[in-house]
Amino acid sequence: MSVLVRKADGLTEPFAPQKLLESLHRAGAEESSAREVLGRVEHDLYPGITTQEIYRRAFGYLRDQRKGVAARYSLKRSVMEFGPSGFPFEVFIAELLRTDGYTAVTDQIIKGACVEHEVDVVAKKKNEILYVEAKFHNAPAFKTDLKVTLYVKARLDDIAAARVATKAKGEMKGLIVTNTKFTGHAVRYASCAGVDLLGWDEPRGATLHERIVAAKLYPVTALTSLTRREKISLLEKQVVLCSALAADHTILAGIGVHGGRTQEILDEVTSLSGWDKP
Fold it and tell me: Considering its fold, how many domains does the chain have in total?
């Protein structure tokens, strides 16, 4: 009989071994390693175990084997560690858009036909201008819902009206980005209203998760060799990406990391960015 697992939204479902294996493979775990972790997790199962507890145990087993794989496995939760302000998430999304060839700036005041609007990220590429609303959640159960898409659409319409009045050039688009999921109503309305969505598993084939992995744009919060205090210190200095640590080793000294730990952290950065290597 299958063991029932409690999900973040409170619902239960049977434990799916293949689902765990697939997530381990996506993180770069070799087949033998993934099977070993699965076996250890299955040994620990009990009725009503939460998905969070399953993640915690799988992550712990992975961390003992290969830190780079463990860091990639924890990517979703690493993004959730950005903090309550959500500002690092906006910076992170701007960096992600830059990897796609956009120029991007955060926290912009844009004039609409009726009022001014605070836009999280404004990105430009060729004749396209993209206005981005970044909705950060620090728990997987939270979803971006219909009312968010409604007010973002209204905001975009006001900005579009101002652009028409001033004869602004370029194609305008709107994008809502979340680090979790969208509700079904939000997805249907956005599709009908012409607002693009980017979530952890939306849209299929080009999800936020897939785009982060493809760009190898890993946050410093993914590093298992950093303490929580050190991660917070980096975020406070607006150091969001692992690549920043590789480019400037003095950043670690600036938060009190010295000696052998510096190399340990940099080794993990290398392991993380080189996920496609055996």
Answer: 2
